[in-house]
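Render this sequence as a predicted structure.
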Amino acid sequence: MRYAIEQYDTHGYLKAPVWLWLGWIFLARAWLVFVMAGVSRSSGSDILAWVYPNSATLYLGLLSGLPGLALMWLIGLRHQQRTKINALVRNGRWLTILTVLVQSIQVGYHTYLQHGIFHWANALTLLILLWLVLYLLRSRRVKDCFCEPIDANR
């Protein structure tokens, strides 16, 4: 056994690491802004206009945040009898990498639209996305958390 018993759920699947959860939350940041704007009724449209001045970028952010939200939901639903959910989660690592690449292209496009002018928000976003893709590619625990558990009865 490679990991401590506390790192497995009740069905024998390895739990997702905290850094992966934080990465998924970062990928779904447009959803967080959208929910916060919805909760603050009176100033919600001002918040959305300040964070996303162009509504198309909000929609792209919401669309590119969906895979992370879906994986956060589906990883808790894994069970030996749920083969379709297990198949989706098994491909979750590559889906997350694809989402990171899409969001990197989106930030690069925004930088292009701003004529290459340096902004800390774009730089930090690209740095976090770079760290996240390296983490997804190199972490053994991330690879293992998307795998099926070995059944002792087989």
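Summary. The chain has a mean pLDDT of 89. The chain is about 70% helix and 0% strand.
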